[in-house]
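User: Second chain of the day. Same drill as before.
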Amino acid sequence: MKKVLLILVAISFIACNDSKKEDKTSEGVQETKVEVELYTFDGGSVEAHNLNLFAQGETYKGESKKLADAFYVVKHPKGILLWDSGLPEGLVGNDPFTTPDGAFTISRKDSIVNQLSQIGLTPSDVDFIAFSHIHFDHTGTANNFSDATWLVQTPEYDFAMSEDIKGNGFYDPASFSELKKVEKLNGDKDVFGDGTVVIKSMPGHTPGHQVLYLELANAGPVLLSGDMYHFQENRDRAIVPQFNYDISQSEKAILDFEAFAKEKNATVYIQHEIVDFNKMPKIPNSLN
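Assistant: Same format as last time:
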C-alpha cells in the first residue's frame, strides 16, 4: 500500500511540475509581444484659407482652417521607419509663407535633425523612409535620409519621375531627389515581416497614396491616415478633395480604409487634424 501511495505522490508531483512548465510556457508566449514605438513630431502647420479645395462643389465655401503637418518615427527591434517628413526646412527661422494664389500659409519651427536628436537619433539611423504620398508638405526634409531605403508604390514613383509632375505646385521633386535606394511596392508591405508595421496601398489622393498600420503592445491597432482625410469632418462625411489625383480611386480607397479599420478595430489618427495631433504623446514620449 505504501508503494502505491508513493507512486501516486510521485505522479502527482510530476504532473504538477509539468503543469507549471506549461503555464510558464504559455505566459512566455503572451509576453513575447514585439515592442514597437510610435513617435509623433511637428512638421509645421498649414493655414488653409480656401477650405473648399478639400471638398467637391461649394461644401466649404468661404471657410478656412488650420491644419497640423505631423510626421512620425516608428522604432522596431529590426529597424527604424520614418513616415513622412513635414514641410520644407527653408521655412525654419523665417516668417510664414503664403502661396501666390493665397490658398495656403505654411510655417515650420524646427529642423528634422534637431527634432530626431531629442529621441537620440540621427538621419543615418533611419533604415526606411516612406511617404503617405509625395505632396510637398510630406517630403520637405527627405533629402536628409539618403542612406535610407525609400518604400514607394510603383505608380507613385513612376509619376514622380515623369514629365507630368513638373510645374505642379503640389509637388517638389527636388525635396526627395537624394533618395537613391528605392524599393518599389505593388500593394501592401509588411515592413519588418511580423505584421506590426504594415504599409497599406490606398491610391487616389495621389497615384500611389498609402497609409500605415501599426500593432502596438499597449495602445493596440493604430492607423495613420496619410491624406485619406484632412480633418474629422472629411472622414465623417466621406468627402473627397477636389484636387485629388483620381476621384473614383479615392472613393474606393475610403471604403477600403474604413473596412480595414473596422476589421482591425484600429484607432485612426488623421495626420492633418490638430485634435488628433494633440492626442499623441509628445517627444521624447511615444505611443507603444
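The first strand starts at residue 37 and ends at 48.

User: Great, on to the next one.
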